[in-house]
Each structure stands twice: as C-alpha cells, then as structure tokens.
Design the sequence.
C-alpha cells in the first residue's frame, strides 16, 4: 500500500488497485493545534460546515508526510502511515485475533494470575488476547473481599448493571427468582437472552466452593454452530432465520427480546448464540416449518449437551472466570447444599470494556 501524487491528485495504491483519495477526505484529517484538540485528538472544526468544493491547490511528499495546501487556505502535513492505516475499513485489533474453536479435547489453556498492577500491564493484554481466542479466560487468586468482582470489572471497563443489581450472588436460597439460585444442575445456556442488548461478557468469581459437585461447564457455541452448519445445513438455516421470544418476568419487570438462536452478522458470519430453553417462546408458524424448527432445536440442544463439546472443571476459591456470553454456553452440575458452602458472585461487562482496554494496551506497549 502506498501513496502516489500526480498533478495535485493523491492516489492510494494497493496490489492492482489505484484509487484517487477524495480531497475532502484529506481535508477532514488536517491536524495541528488550530484543528485538533491536543489532548483528546478530537476535531475543533465541524467538517459538515465546510464548503463541499474542497480541492487541493498544491501537494508534495516530504519524508513520511503529505504536505497539502487546500483551496480554502488551509495548509497541513499529514502522516502517510496514519492515513494508510485508515484504508482498510476493518477493525484491526479485535477482528485480527483468530478465534480458536474448541471442544472437549481442549487442554492446557493458560490461566492468569492476579496481581495488583494487572489491569495496565502487558499480562492484561495477553489475558485479553486469550479471552478473544477461546471465548473465556480464568484468573487465579483474585481477592474476594468487599465484592471485589465489581472493582475487577470496573478496572477493565464498566460494570453493566441489570435489574439483578451491579453484581449478583450465586448460591442456593429460598424462593429463588431464577434456577441459578438453587442447587440444581444447570444445562449449558447463555445468560439473559431476554435483554436488549444481551450482556456481552459474564464474570463469575468463586468465593467459596466446598461441595463435591457444582462443577462448571463450558461449551463453545462457535464450534457447535460450525459443526451444525456442516452436518445439518437445513437445521442451521432455520435456526438462523426464525426469531423466538425470550422472556423473563419478576415482580417489578417484564423483559422480552426476539432473536434467532443463532444470529449471523451482516456478512452472514457467526455473531451470537442464545440458548435458554426455559425462557424461549417459538412463534406460531406453518406446521411444516415448525416441524423442521423443533427438529433443528432438538439437534442443537443435543450438541450443546453432548460430551463431545463440553468441558467441565471445578472453580476454586479466588478463581475468576470471564466468558463471552455471545459465543460460549455455560452451566454447572448439581450439588448438595448440605455439604458446605458454594458461593459465586457474578456481573457483566460489555464488549466496549474489553475492546477499549485492549486497544489502550496495544497503544501503550506498541503492540
Ligand atoms: Fe448463567
């Protein structure tokens, strides 16, 4: 990729492509104290108020800079590398991390160790990369005092508060408003599919786990989706198309959201899974279509619950797991509450927290 200058027109060249860069596009990017705030790098001018007939009166290339005089009297030096970094319209930080699809064979995944200076460290960068690769990461030895999970979440980004509060306590209790607060087994599910938007990332912090059961389970929804697409394309298709209603009711709130069990992005790639078979309501469709839908959902459920895909492990006190609620399903095996205490705390953060932190750390460590 390079810049070429021909008679005051500026071109970018990439492989066999040569395209003129619009003068207005360059004019929007002028820098210097008069045009950009020094600290925030935000514009001090409004490009929508500029004359749309902006043209280049004179241009030259000097070392790594484009030196341009615009016809409205503005003169600027633009860093070529910075300009070129914008030619690709894709996010370079998050999307460039290759997702590692996994199933029950997954072994030896790296755990991270909590330290006081973790959040602004290179270790945090590596932790976040691992999180985006596998969809989860475990951090050991995280302090458990004073709802530390909230501090932990707020040190990455911001807690996503819900009607369950800033954080929630997962232990069996009388008259629960969710099966999470019992000692029953929980089949693999995603959290809160009834919210709009669904919380992106769940943090679960083990405060105490003195029971024999109560193992944590995880399933990679990406792997299951890709396998379903290959093995049963007609099931995959209908599960990406039919929107179902997810609903949660409590004394003070009624939450509803409509979406397919497998949601694809605009370019038909994997975006998000939702699965919580106690909370979904399928619309009335033609009988034949429903016939196919129910077969498809059953197959999907079989896969999510299959030993082929599931990993099981025991969280110990001070372990904190961070998991992608758009990609992974989680659950737990049953336990006997009489054996001792099992107490986890949970909260949510959204992708802007982890993405913002990762971009910051890449900037800080020049990665
Ligand atoms: Fe859950």
Sequence:
């Amino acid at each position: 990729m390079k810049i070429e200058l021909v008679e005051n027109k500026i071109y970018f060249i990439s492989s066999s492509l040569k395209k003129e860069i619009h003068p207005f596009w360059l004019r929007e990017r002028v820098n210097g104290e008069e045009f950009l705030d020094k600290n925030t790098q935000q514009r001090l001018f409004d490009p929508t108020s500029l004359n749309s007939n902006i043209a280049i009166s004179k241009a030259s290339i000097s070392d790594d800079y484009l030196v341009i005089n615009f016809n409205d009297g503005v003169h600027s030096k633009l860093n070529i590398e910075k300009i070129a970094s914008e030619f690709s319209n894709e996010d370079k930080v998050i999307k460039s991390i290759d997702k590692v699809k996994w199933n029950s064979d997954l072994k030896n995944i790296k755990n991270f160790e909590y330290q006081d200076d973790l959040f602004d460290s290179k270790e945090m960068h590596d932790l976040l990369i691992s999180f985006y690769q596998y969809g989860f990461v475990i951090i050991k030895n995280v302090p458990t005092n004073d709802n530390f999970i909230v501090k932990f979440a707020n040190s990455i980004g911001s807690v996503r508060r819900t009607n369950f509060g800033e954080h929630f306590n997962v232990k069996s209790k009388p008259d629960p408003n969710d099966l999470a607060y019992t000692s029953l087994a929980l089949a693999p599910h995603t959290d809160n599919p009834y919210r709009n938007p669904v919380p992106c990332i769940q943090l679960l912090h083990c405060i105490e786990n003195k029971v024999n059961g109560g193992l944590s389970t995880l399933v990679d929804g990406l792997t299951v989706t890709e396998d379903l697409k290959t093995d049963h394309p007609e099931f995959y298709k209908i599960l990406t198309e039919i929107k179902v209603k997810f609903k949660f009711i409590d004394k003070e709130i009624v939450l509803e959201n409509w979406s397919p069990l497998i949601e694809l992005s605009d370019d038909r790639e994997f975006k998000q899974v939702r699965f919580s078979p106690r909370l979904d309501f399928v619309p009335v469709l033609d009988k034949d279509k429903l016939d196919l839908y129910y077969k498809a959902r059953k197959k999907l459920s079989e896969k999510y619950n299959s030993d082929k895909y599931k990993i099981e492990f025991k969280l110990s006190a001070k372990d904190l797991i961070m998991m992608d609620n758009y990609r992974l399903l989680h659950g737990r095996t049953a336990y006997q509450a009489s054996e001792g205490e099992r107490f986890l705390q949970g909260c949510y953060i959204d992708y802007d927290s982890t993405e913002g932190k990762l971009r910051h750390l890449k900037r800080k460590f020049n990665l």
In short: The pocket of fe (ii) ion is lined by residues 180, 189, 191, 330 (CB under 6 Å).
